[in-house]
Amino acid sequence: MKKSIAIIVGGTGQFGVLLAEKLLKKKYKVIITTRSVIKAKKRIRKKKFIFKKLNILAKSEIKKLLLKNKPKIIFYTASQSSPGKSFKNKKETYLSNYVGCKNFLEIIKKYKIESKFVNFSSCEIYGNYKKKISVETIKKPISPYGMAKLKSHNQTKYYRDNYNLKSYNAIIFNTESFFRPKYYLVPKICLAAIKAKKKNLKTEFGNLKISREWNWCDEQCKYLMIFVKKKPQDFILSNGKSYSAINLLKFAFGYFNLDYKRYISVNKKFIRKKDSTIKKSNYLKCLRRNNIKRNDKFFGRKLIYSLIKHYLHEEKY
């Protein structure tokens, strides 16, 4: 029996790797596209993964990939994914988040490719909104990243509504894993606690007044797979478990019985001028609409402890 094919575009990040593992277990043939196959293989040592070089700005390459493989599902994860970095890398952010996504949608429509298309949208499309965010909440992004994500989000919805494409927007809230780059806040907090314990070092941070719903990527992938079995739609992917940065610092330093206040300082150079203080989701609305029950196990203290234990086994941190 011929295997169904899944393509993960730009799939060398945390979602790409963990999604690929789940798809392999479901007997899919998984193709991960990347700008550099050599770098991808060095970073991800998974023998069953198939890496293909792809320029998401070249429609001819996208056409060749899709017509040759006829995938059952496509996950568009390619992007410059840091809101902070997007202020310095506006062009890359725009091209990777929006133009590449638009190119895929155009090729799928033009050549009538029977594939589900899942765009990785973001809670950053809503900007600084203090109330709980629903899919329908007014979208006012405050970063180039959020703006680019909103354009790809709207384009994905447009092709679904106007051309009947089986296209989804997964509106993803903050997500962590062992594959998360260490310059993001949660890894930085965990590593700060380790450095304080092992080397008595202090760490500088930016805005610690923020609060987010911090999700575990493996669980996010689990529920993403459930959502894409439903009818094409926009949906929120989050666990609803909200913690402040201060909460996370207490968990991390508490792991070593340390007082975080002795080992951290705030440096204004790390504070982004445009940053939302609170991000909360009305995640239950999407779950109820789709008759899905969500039961997360990795959040808060357990999430922080898992990351610390992982980093302690690494040689470099």
Order of helices and strands: EHEHEHEHHEEHEEHEEEHEEHEEHH
CATH fold assignment of the largest domain: Rossmann fold
Largest sheet: 7 strands, parallel
Q: What structural category characterises the helix and strand content?
A: alpha/beta
The overall pLDDT, averaged over residues, is: 93
N-end to C-end Cα span: 45 Å
| Assigned CATH superfamily of the largest domain | NAD(P)-binding Rossmann-like Domain
Tally the helices: what do you get? 11
Strand count: 15
Q: Percent helix among the residues?
A: 40-55%
Strand % is 15-25%
Which residues sit in consecutive blocks of at least 5 with pLDDT less than 50?
none
What's the structural domain tally? 2
CATH architecture label name of the largest domain: 3-Layer(aba) Sandwich
Spatial strand order of the main sheet: 3-2-1-4-5-7-12
Compute the CA-based radius of gyration. Answer: 20 Å
Molecular shape: globular
CATH class of the largest domain: Alpha Beta
Describe this structure in words.
Strand 1, helix 1 (14-25) and strand 2 (29-34) form a beta-alpha-beta unit. This protein folds into two domains: 5-172, NAD(P)-binding Rossmann-like Domain (Rossmann fold, 3-Layer(aba) Sandwich), CATH 3.40.50; 178-213 and 241-279 and 298-312, UDP-galactose 4-epimerase, domain 1, CATH 3.90.25.10. It is 41% helix and 18% strand. The chain is globular and about 60 Å long. Helix 7 (185-199) packs across helix 11 and helix 9 packs across helix 11. The strands form five sheets. Strands 3-2-1-4-5-7-12 form a seven-stranded parallel beta sheet, sandwiched between helices. The protein has 317 residues and is α/β, with parallel strands linked by helices. The mean pLDDT is 93.
